[in-house]
Every structure is written in structure tokens, then in C-alpha cells.
Design a protein that fits this description.
Elements: H1 6-9, H2 36-53, H3 61-74, H4 96-107, H5 112-134, H6 139-151, H7 153-159, H8 165-179, H9 186-189, H10 192-204, H11 211-220, H12 225-250, H13 256-262, H14 270-282, H15 292-305, H16 310-326, H17 336-357, H18 360-367, H19 370-389, H20 395-410, E1 418-421, H21 425-431, E2 434-437, H22 454-459, E3 463-467, H23 470-477, H24 480-485, E4 486-493, E5 514-520
Parallel strand pairs: 1-2, 1-3
Antiparallel strand pairs: 3-5, 4-5
Helix pairs in contact: 2-5, 2-6, 2-19, 3-4, 3-21, 5-6, 5-8, 6-17, 6-19, 8-10, 10-11, 10-12, 11-16, 15-17, 16-17, 20-21
């Protein structure tokens, strides 16, 4: 007699018995699970694809902001961006928890970029293991989710871009695993709700959107009351301590970067912004559109039954809903969890489809074999190697290494020079100089200037770094006072162009990774 699928028989996320569900013929074989070797092969594929991505993707400029905070903390200057500045301390990073973790690794002797990328590799591999646990190592969803995490290029780009998202995903999955009930009464009396509460609360220090995760997991602990208390107590304790600390050090629990970004004008119509959010969340690549029915089926399956990694799916959907409600200007790394959730839902939806077709048991047994898992993992890695070989990273050698060479030559930090910049991460990290932030992310005074270049006129920094587009460099070139006071000094262009000449009429309208560095003329000092 055929046994029911473990998806139907998995323990519910709340205490108390749940009626057995009738399953279609051909439901998954409960014995067909991925063994430790298979999980290790999938984790190796994830790591291999990330390492290959290092050749194709640069670190995000925003990651360098957190890196500088981490370095300053490790050196004893505090979690600040411009040590010793009159306006410090200012919390200009939205991920102070990630900065603190990186500072600890730097204090142990690691270089901050290596620490960040190594931590993200470990987090991605651990996320694969946690997903296998949440799927009870059933072969179909475990293997598909593992291959998806390895293969989806957006995930590799964000992870190896040095952002905090992989650590957030890992902590979210760990909290989801801790939130699983293991029988009547046990979860209420045990440590699982406490661990889930601590992990969910800690996620808020990685991304402020994680307050939604706290609420999602709160729904998983509603019954019995003792379970809710054990979950809520660490959430409230950590939340109160974290909020009090930020208020005491920075004067507000809201990061300055959030305050600054919320006041930025958005030139894009709200309908276009909503379309961008939906596209980046569910189908940044055109072939992903074809899988959306499976994604929807898998999401309904997980959420309706509250099994497996359902808290991740609920959290990701809540994030997307919040973005649609507020329609902020978003960047690629905002969508790491929604895209990881997309992979999870495809895995669950594929399992549901195979069950409906009566092929689940056969598929589970086939994918449980290490030889099959290893072969599929090797194909994904090989495809990644071919794709990456076609598009090597040009930003690191042409922008970051060029900035580092300039800093070594001019030594602005040693001379006490300041830099006004519209993109502040890399220039601050490599130069070590005091940075006047055009957007007000780490320099609140910038928000007082209606005309952003007014800060340059008033403070006369020795260097001005501008994105070479119409809004930034174009406005500078149109100002005769500033062009008389500053001379074009260097150019850092992802395409490798070094000529010190720009045509204001042909400057691009959008953001480009092409920077013009101006230096104050001797006569103007």
C-alpha cells in the first residue's frame, strides 16, 4: 500500500492534531530522501557557482559603506562612517548587525571584503542545508531548491556583491526551523519558541523589513498561550534593548540612510515603480515567467498547510506587498529573499505537479540518488562557468583598483582632505578620507541644501566625485563658479575610459558606474 506524502503528514506549524488529507495516487515516497552526501553535493554546487560569480560581479558600492563602518568599529572608533567628525555618530547603514559581525571578523585579523564574501558563502551553504531540513530532505523539493539557489544569477550577484542578504536568508530559515512544532506541548515548553524569537529579532538588525518576519512567526506561535509568551519574550527584550541602544548612540532608532532616502524625489511614475518591484521580485529573467504558475501553486501549498519553509514565503510576500504600498526606490539586493522564495515555491510546486501526474514517487527515488544529484549539480556549475566567461567583471579593475591606486598616490586621508561624493562607498573605503555625502546618508547636513552643489560651494572640499550622468556631472559642468574652482583630476569608468573630457550634451540620463573626480585648483585653496 502506498504511503502518503510527507508534505501532508508533516507536523503542522501550530500545536494540536491535524486531520489526515487524502493524497492522489502516485504521491511521494516518504522513504525517498536526499542523504547527507546529496545535500553536501548541492551545497558544493551553490558555493562553486558563487565562487565563479566572483569573476563576473563586483562588490556593490553600498557594501563598501557597511565595510567602512565595520572597519571603524574594529579599530575602536565606533560604528561610525567619519570618525572624529563633528556630526558623528550617524547611523548611515541599514544593516548594523551585519556591520558588527564583520567588525568581529576584522578584529580577528580578516580583511573586511574577504570576511564579507566568506561569510556570505557560508550563509548560502547553510541556507541550503536548512532548506533540506525544512523540506524533510524529500528529494524533489530539496534538489530543485538547491539547484535553483545555485543557478539563479541574481542570487549569486547579490551574494558576491557583499550585501547582507545571504545572512538574512540564513537567519530567516533558521528561525523557521526553530518555529516548527514537534508534537503537542513540546514546542510550548521547550526552547524552540525562544530560539525562533531571538533569531527573528536579530534579523531586524540585518534589515529593518524584518519586523514583518517577527509578525509572520508570531502567527506561528499563537497557540497555546505559553508558546506565544516564550516566543514574544525574547522578541520584546531584544527589540527594547536594540532600540534603546540606537537611540542612546545615534539619537534615533531609524537609520539616517532611511531618513535621507525617504526624502529623495522619484522621477519614475508610481505605476512604473510598481512594475519594477513586481518584475524584480518574481521574474527578473524572461524564462522565469513560464514558471510563475508553479510558483503560485507552490506558494499556496506551503502557506495553506503551513509546512516546510512557509515563513520564508510569507515574509517575502509581505516584503513585496510593503514595497508596493510605499513604492520606494529599490536596488537589486532588496529582492534576495523574494527570489529565494521564488526558488522554494518552484520546488514545492513541482512536487505538487508530479503528485498530480502520479510521478512523484518515481521522481523522488531518482533524485535521491547521489549520482543523479551530483550530475545535475555539475551541469549547473558548468553552465555557470560558461555564462560567467562571457562577461568578466570590469568594475573592479577599472573603478575600484583605479580608486585604490589614486588614493595610494594622493594620500588624501593623510593630508586631512575631504571628498564630496554622490556615490560614497568605494571612494570612502579606498581613500580613508572624510566624505561629505551628497545624498545625506551619512552626512545629515546635506539634506539642508536644495541645490546639492550648494554644499560644494560652501565647504569647498578638496575633491569632488560625481557620477558622470546628466543629473550629477551635467549640473556641475553647467556651474561656471565650480568649473573655475575645480579641475578634472581622474576618471574611474567601468568601461575603462580614462580620457579627462566630458561632453555635457551627451551625458547619459540614468545612473552609470563612470565617475569624474575633480580636485580644487591651487588658486582656489
Amino acid at each position: 500500500m502506498q504511503r502518503p506524502s510527507p508534505m501532508a503528514g508533516s507536523p503542522p506549524a501550530v500545536d494540536g492534531p491535524r486531520p489526515e488529507r487524502l493524497r492522489p495516487a502516485g504521491a511521494a515516497d516518504a522513504g525517498a530522501r536526499v542523504g547527507p552526501l546529496g545535500v553536501a553535493l548541492l551545497a558544493a554546487a551553490v558555493v562553486a557557482c558563487r565562487l565563479l560569480a566572483l569573476r563576473a560581479v563586483p562588490i556593490y558600492d553600498d557594501a563598501f559603506i557597511t565595510y567602512r563602518y565595520a572597519q571603524n568599529l574594529a579599530r575602536g572608533a565606533g560604528l561610525v562612517f567619519n570618525p572624529g567628525a563633528a556630526w558623528e555618530p550617524v547611523l548611515g547603514t541599514t544593516t548594523p548587525g551585519y556591520g558588527v559581525v564583520l567588525a568581529g571578523l576584522v578584529a580577528l585579523g580578516l580583511e573586511v571584503r574577504q570576511a564579507s564574501l566568506g561569510l556570505n558563502l557560508l550563509a548560502d551553504a547553510t541556507s541550503l542545508w536548512l532548506l533540506a531540513r525544512l523540506f524533510d530532505r524529500r528529494a524533489v523539493p530539496t534538489v530543485i531548491a538547491g539547484l535553483g539557489l545555485a543557478a539563479l544569477p541574481q542570487l549569486a550577484r547579490i551574494s558576491m556583491g557583499g550585501m547582507e542578504s545571504p545572512l538574512l536568508l540564513c537567519a530567516t530559515l533558521a528561525a523557521a526551523l526553530a518555529a516548527r512544532a514537534r508534537g503537542p506541548g513540546k514546542s510550548a515548553a521547550g526552547a524552540r519558541p525562544v530560539v525562533a524569537g531571538l533569531l527573528a529579532a536579530a534579523c531586524v538588525s540585518l534589515r529593518p523589513e524584518s519586523v514583518l518576519l517577527v509578525l509572520v512567526l508570531g502567527l506561528a506561535h499563537l497557540r497555546p498561550p505559553a508558546r506565544l509568551v516564550r516566543y514574544a519574550a525574547p522578541v520584546l527584550a531584544f527589540g527594547a534593548a536594540y532600540t534603546a541602544l540606537l537611540w542612546w548612540v545615534y539619537g534615533s532608532p531609524v537609520p539616517q540612510s532611511v531618513v535621507a532616502k525617504s526624502g529623495l524625489p522619484d522621477p519614475v511614475d508610481w505605476t512604473v515603480r510598481a512594475r519594477i518591484i513586481l518584475t524584480e521580485s518574481f521574474a527578473p529573467l524572461l524564462p522565469m515567467v513560464a514558471a510563475l504558475p508553479l510558483v503560485a501553486w507552490g506558494a499556496v501549498r506551503l502557506l495553506a498547510r503551513r509546512v516546510g519553509p512557509w515563513p520564508l514565503v510569507a515574509f517575502a510576500l509581505a516584503m513585496v506587498a510593503a514595497y508596493l504600498l510605499k513604492r520606494p526606490k529599490t536596488w537589486g539586493w532588496y529582492f534576495y529573499l523574494p527570489l529565494a522564495s521564488w526558488v522554494v515555491c518552484v520546488a514545492a510546486g513541482t512536487e505538487a505537479l508530479l503528485e498530480r501526474l502520479g510521478l512523484a514517487a518515481r521522481a523522488q527515488r531518482a533524485l535521491a540518488r547521489p549520482l543523479v544529484v551530483g550530475g545535475l549539480a555539475a551541469l549547473v556549475v558548468a553552465a555557470g562557468a560558461v555564462a560567467i566567461g562571457r562577461r568578466p567583471d570590469a568594475v573592479t579593475p577599472n573603478v575600484y583598483e583605479a580608486m585604490a591606486a589614486w588614493a595610494e598616490e594622493d594620500r588624501p586621508a593623510e593630508r586631512g582632505a575631504s571628498v564630496y561624493a554622490s556615490d560614497i562607498g568605494a571612494i570612502a573605503f579606498f581613500s580613508g578620507a572624510r566624505v561629505l555625502d551628497a545624498e545625506g546618508l551619512v552626512w545629515p547636513a546635506a539634506l539642508a541644501y536644495e541645490d546639492k552643489l550648494g554644499a560644494v560651494r560652501e565647504h569647498r572640499p578638496e575633491y569632488v566625485l560625481l557620477v558622470a550622468n546628466h543629473a550629477r556631472l551635467g549640473a556641475f559642468l553647467a556651474d561656471p563658479e565650480l568649473t573655475a574652482a575645480y579641475a578634472l583630476h581622474r576618471r574611474f569608468d567601468a568601461r575603462g575610459r580614462t580620457e579627462l573630457a566630458f561632453d555635457a550634451e551627451t551625458l547619459p540620463r540614468g545612473w552609470v558606474q563612470d565617475y569624474a573626480l575633480y580636485r580644487l585648483r591651487e588658486s582656489s585653496r
